[in-house]
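Continuing the series of single-chain predictions for the mutant panel. This is the parent chain; the variants come on the following pages.
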Amino acid sequence: MIPLAPPFNGTDDDSNIRCLCGPCHKIRTAEQFGHRMVHGTDVNGRPLDPAHPWNRTLPPGAGRN
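Parent structure:
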């Protein structure tokens, strides 16, 4: 299978298609693009839990110095 996305530019032919469920698709896509999958994160490594500190919005002026 060759991914459709650049820089791979695979074809949309039936021979280049694999039917996967959503979670398996995320894992396979992460593997193809060199991202590391960790349980509880998206393909970019960001936590899925909205309460995780990385996903909280800081109040104005509270950024790191």
